[in-house]
Specification:
The complex is a heterodimer of chains A (590) and B (158).
Chain A (H helix, E strand, L loop, with lengths): L1 H8 L1 H4 L4 H8 L5 H7 L4 H10 L2 E4 L7 H7 L5 E5 L19 H9 L6 E5 L5 H10 L5 E5 L2 E4 H10 L5 E5 L2 E3 L18 E3 L9 H9 L6 E3 L6 H9 L6 E4 L8 H13 L5 E4 L5 H5 L10 E3 L8 H8 L7 E5 L3 H11 L5 E5 L15 H10 L5 E6 L4 H10 L5 E6 L14 H10 L5 E3 L6 H10 L5 E5 L5 H10 L5 E5 L5 H5 L10 E5 L5 H10 L3 E6 L20 E6 L12 E3 L1
Parallel strand pairs in A: 1-2, 2-3, 3-4, 4-6, 5-7, 6-8, 8-9, 9-10, 10-11, 11-12, 12-13, 13-14, 14-15, 15-16, 16-17, 17-18, 18-19, 19-20
Antiparallel strand pairs in A: 20-22, 21-22, 21-23
Chain B lengths: L24 H10 L18 H14 L7 E6 L6 E4 L6 H12 L3 E2 L8 E6 L5 E3 L5 H7 L2 E5 L5
Parallel strand pairs in B: 1-6, 3-4
Antiparallel strand pairs in B: 1-2, 4-5, 4-6
The chains are: A alpha/beta (590), B alpha/beta (158).
InterPro entries (chain A): COI1_F-box, F-box_dom, Leu-rich_rpt, LRR_dom_sf, Transp_inhibit
Pfam families (chain A): F-box_5, LRR_6, Transp_inhibit
Keywords (chain A): Auxin signaling pathway
């Protein structure tokens, strides 16, 4: 950002340079936000910038149309698209809501854009789209799909077969219909360019020999994440022919590994001296984690959040040797004691996520994490800047201590499992605790709050969270004032998502212009009514105001609309292309 | 123990935060019913806490395995006239009601058990003998043992 301002100041001098030189200078500014700023400086800069822009990030696929995108950035090579709102991850958005990839691929293909990279999040992707993609872009190198659905392994087969220059195929948390076909076989024998292959989320069988042959002929392969269907001996063979791996996702192990196969695995692992990142481990026996002891000192990233079978002591035994760890995702079975070990061993830790192993409190166990673990981590890990923490209890005192220990948080997400849960020692609300966090962490960009919270916490957030871009609220607040504090105070707010909180029309309608500065607003199970939403839509034609209903017919009965009816789910977002045409019956756009 | 029916997510008074004992765990589950939840599965909330589907499924499978239940029971579901089917893990449903709710949601139409008529999509299944039967005639547990495939029939044209 600073660089953009400095460039702006020297524009007059710069305009004596030929365009190619200016373009070359712009090449040093990859951040899309900075590039957006540059394009606003002058007409000539706008022109140069847009014709040299290769990477475009679109946070909401309905904010703009593919045609307009291509018109503005004809030299597009790398596109990131996001579809469904965040709460779709938690079953709050109907499957058919939207976010279809096909119109984008269709337009890009027709315009003969030289697409090389596509990164999608929460989009609906079809096999047809994948096939069209694979045939349309000769230089296509990288496909990353996160939390997408609508396609099958047949679509993957098209990608494998047709993308001759494919370097990256990364499938994270997608719902893929596994036809148990031979998609891995579809990589031609001549395909040797793979750098990254992640199919951990595939539920079906894997053709092991096809996989082994593919890995063997991919000397540049750095990242390999397999699914549950890859057993221990296959993994050993894979690692033996890919000792250059940097990032490994392990599949499923048999429960009792024979000593001989275990020895072979350890020998293969020892050769992987470049290995820095480890994940997977669903359905594994604890002994299998120990096979990785030889390289655990080298690990910078460890994701054991699916390793539900591993118990606290196994996790602790392993993690204590991971002295270089920067990223740790783990289940709360590690316990407070485990987090204390992490705090004393992992001094380089930057990002921690602790997930709940018993989300509905069905087991009678006392070993989950509490505020004690959180405080220990904050005290022991000076570089910590991102945290996601699920726990059953919290106190203001702990949060205040955490804020003092870690003023550098960029992301702070705390989820207390039981909604409205108060400070378990003082029985007060957690307003003061979160207040301390926002006051101390001046660079905070993302915040999720939980537990018993009144309007006061939002007063604090509005007052102190100056850099806040994304805020998630659930079961919090008392009156419209809470939401207003946030809307009025957080100048950099881009995404606001609220569920089950008593905010209504007064808050929604107070400052309609605010939504033009934001990407989107989500409100579900709140107090906003149909009448309020209609009024908003009338006053803000640049917004799409969507009402999502889930009644028997999936359709809002037009004759029986009552303006006083509370709206089940509201999703609004700014857009330059007006109402979308692909909304399903359960979505009404006002 | 607090009466779960009077529980309000909006109250600012402190909530009884004592951990429920095993005998009261059923009360704890019903607490989640009073949270406004838009999901069709009411046994345990599918939208709280905010964890992603893959983690949710992993933990559920683990729970079932620990209790000695056979986990995944995948069957294909086809809607008559639609070439691509969907796959369902029947072990994730507690009974016919949650199965129908989920199918209705998945196919964006009302799916029922019962006889074919001109209005409704009726659910049928193929049993282990290869015969096509009406869903809902036998106890759920027996159904799980015998079902091989599901088909949603189109409303009959007169």
């Amino acid at each position: 950002m600073d660089r953009a301002i400095k460039l702006q100041l020297s524009t007059s001098e710069m305009n004596y340079f030929p365009d190619e030189v200016i373009e070359h200078i712009f090449d040093f500014i990859p951040s899309h936000r900075d590039r957006n700023s540059i394009s606003l400086v002058s007409k000539s800069w706008h022109k140069i910038e847009r014709s040299s822009r290769h990477q475009v990030f679109i946070g909401n696929c309905y904010a703009i149309s593919p045609e307009r995108l291509i018109r503005r950035f004809p030299c597009l090579r790398s596109l990131t698209l996001k579809g469904k709102p965040h709460f779709a991850d938690f079953n709050l958005v109907p499957h058919e809501w939207g976010g279809f990839l096909h119109p984008w691929i269709d337009a890009l293909s027709k315009a003969r854009v030289g697409l090389e990279e596509l990164r999608l999040k929460r989009m609906v992707v079809s096999d047809e789209s994948l096939e069209l993609l694979s045939r349309s872009f000769v230089g296509f190198k990288s496909l990353v799909l996160v939390s997408c659905d609508g396609f099958t392994t047949d679509g993957l087969a098209s990608i494998a077969a047709n993308c001759r220059n494919l370097r990256e195929l990364d499938l994270q948390e997608n719902e893929i219909d596994d036809h148990r076909g031979q998609w891995l076989n579809c990589f031609p024998d001549s395909s040797t360019t793979l750098v990254s292959l992640n199919f951990a989320c595939l539920k079906g069988e894997t053709n092991l020999s096809a996989l082994e042959r593919l890995v063997a002929r991919s000397p540049n392969l750095k990242s390999l994440k397999v699914n549950r269907a890859v057993p221990l001996d296959a993994l050993t063979r894979l690692m033996s022919c890919a000792p250059q791996l940097v990032d490994l996702g392990v599949g499923c192990y048999e429960n009792e590994a024979e000593p001989e196969s275990f020895e072979k695995l350890m020998a293969a692992i020892k050769k992987c001296t470049l290995l820095r990142s480890l994940s997977g481990f669903s359905e594994v026996a604890p002994i299998c984690l120990t096979a990785f002891y030889p390289i655990c000192e080298n690990l910078t990233s460890l994701n054991l959040s699916y390793a539900a079978e591993l118990q606290g002591n196994h996790l602790i035994e392993f993690v204590q040797f991971c002295k270089r760890l920067q990223l740790l995702w783990i289940l709360d079975s590690i316990g407070d004691r485990g987090l204390e070990v992490v705090a004393s061993s992992c001094k380089e830790l930057q990002e921690l996520r602790v997930f709940p192993s018993d989300p509905h409190d069905e087991e009678d166990n006392n070993t989950a994490v509490t505020e004690v673990g959180l405080v220990a981590i904050s005290a022991g890990c000076p570089k910590l800047h991102s945290i996601l923490y699920f726990c059953k209890q919290m106190t203001n005192a702990a949060l205040i201590t955490v804020a003092k220990n870690c003023p550098n948080f960029i992301r702070f997400r705390l989820c207390i499992l039981e909604p409205n849960k108060s400070d378990h020692i003082t029985s007060q609300s957690l307003d003061e605790g979160f207040g301390a966090i926002v006051q101390a962490c001046k660079g905070l960009r993302r915040l999720s709050v939980s537990g018993l919270l009144t309007d006061k916490v939002f007063l604090y957030i509005g007052m102190y969270a100056e850099q806040l871009e994304m805020l998630s609220i659930a079961f919090a607040g008392d009156t419209d004032k809470g939401m207003l504090y946030v809307l009025n105070g957080c100048k950099k707010l881009r995404k606001l998502e609220i569920r089950d909180s008593p905010f209504g029309n007064a808050a929604l309608l107070a400052d309609v212009g605010k939504y033009e500065t934001m990407r989107s607003l989500w409100m579900s199970s709140c107090e906003v009514t149909l009448g309020g939403c209609k009024r908003l839509a009338r006053n803000a034609p640049w917004l799409n105001v969507e009402i999502i209903n889930e009644n028997e017919n999936g359709r809002m009965e037009r004759n029986e609309e009552d303006e006083r009816e509370k709206v089940d789910r509201l999703y609004l977002y700014r857009t330059v292309v007006g109402t979308r045409k692909d909304a399903p019956p359960c979505v009404t756009i006002l | 123990m607090e009466n779960s029916n009077s529980y309000s997510p909006y109250s600012s008074s402190s909530v009884d935060s004592t951990k429920p004992s095993p005998s009261e765990s059923s009360v704890n589950l019903s607490l989640s019913l009073t949270f406004p939840s838009t999901s069709s599965q009411r046994e345990t909330s599918q939208d709280w806490p905010p964890i992603k589907p893959r983690l949710r499924d992993t933990l559920k499978s683990l729970r079932l395995r620990q209790r000695g239940y056979n986990t995944a029971l995948f069957v294909k579901v086809y809607m008559e006239g639609v070439p691509i089917g969907r796959k369902l893990d029947l072990s994730t449903f507690s009974g016919y009601k949650s199965l129908l709710e989920n199918l209705s949601h998945m196919f964006d139409t009302s799916v029922i058990c019962g006889t074919r008529d001109s209005k409704n999509h009726v659910l049928t299944y193929q049993d282990k003998d290869g015969d096509w039967m009406m869903v809902g005639d036998i106890p759920w547990d027996m159904f799980l043992e015998t079902v091989r495939r599901l088909k949603i029939t189109r409303p009959e044209r007169c």
